[in-house]
């Protein structure tokens, strides 16, 4: 298994027509070309229904187990989130809001 430092290449470094080898998600931070908005999680409003988790096309909603082995939403992995907004749209509790990204 490669060390984390070896996964520093970003999608912007790819050339047009470049060939990406097996399992590119482990090597390229696709969140690097996220849309202009990013999802912000408010854990106080989250009821851990996990709808956002199953809806995210990039598996960027990170879930952990608490002491009672119940899955809870922990954070959003901005290394891979592309800012599509699906999680915010699907969250009926208003626990995820899309905010303009400051770059
Ligand atoms: S959809 Fe909303 S309430 Fe449900 S787990 Fe995700 S953030 Fe929490
Ligand atoms: S904005 Fe899209 S890619 Fe990012 S966490 Fe939400 S559903 Fe996933």
Overview of the structural elements:
The protein has about 100 residues and is mainly beta. It has 2 domains: about 30 residues, no CATH class; about 70 residues, 2-Layer Sandwich (Alpha-Beta Plaits), CATH 3.30.70. About 10% of the residues lie in helices and about 20% in strands. It contains 2 helices and 4 strands, in the order βαββαβ. It has a two-stranded antiparallel ribbon with strand order 1-4. A hairpin with a 5-residue loop joins strand 2 and strand 3. The radius of gyration is 15 Å and the shape is globular. The mean pLDDT is about 85. It binds iron/sulfur cluster (2 copies). One iron/sulfur cluster binds next to helix 1.
Set down the secondary structure blueprint.
Blueprint: E1 37-41, H1 51-55, E2 61-65, E3 71-76, H2 86-90, E4 96-100
Bound molecules: iron/sulfur cluster (2 copies).
Outline of this structure?
The protein is mainly beta and 103 residues long. The protein has helices at 51-55, 86-90; strands spanning 37-41, 61-65, 71-76, 96-100. Residues 39, 56, 58, 60-61, 76, 81-87 line the site of one iron/sulfur cluster.
Keywords, separated by commas or semicolons:
Alpha-Beta Plaits; single chain; 4 strands; binds iron/sulfur cluster; two-stranded antiparallel ribbon; 103 residues; mainly beta
Helix vs. strand class:
mainly beta
| Structural domain tally | 2
The major β-sheet equals: 2 strands, antiparallel
Strand order of the largest sheet: 1-4
Query: What is the terminal separation in angstroms?
Result: 32 Å
């Amino acid at each position: 298994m490669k060390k984390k430092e070896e996964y520093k290449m970003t999608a912007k470094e790819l050339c047009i027509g470049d060939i990406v080898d097996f399992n590119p998600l482990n090597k390229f931070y696709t969140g690097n070309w996220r849309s202009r908005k990013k999802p912000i999680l408010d854990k106080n409003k989250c009821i851990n229904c996990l709808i956002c988790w199953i809806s995210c096309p990039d598996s960027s909603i990170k879930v952990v187990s608490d002491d009672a082995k119940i899955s809870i939403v922990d954070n959003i992995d901005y290394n891979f989130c592309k800012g599509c907004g699906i999680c915010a749209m699907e969250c009926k509790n208003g626990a995820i809001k899309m905010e303009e990204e400051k770059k």
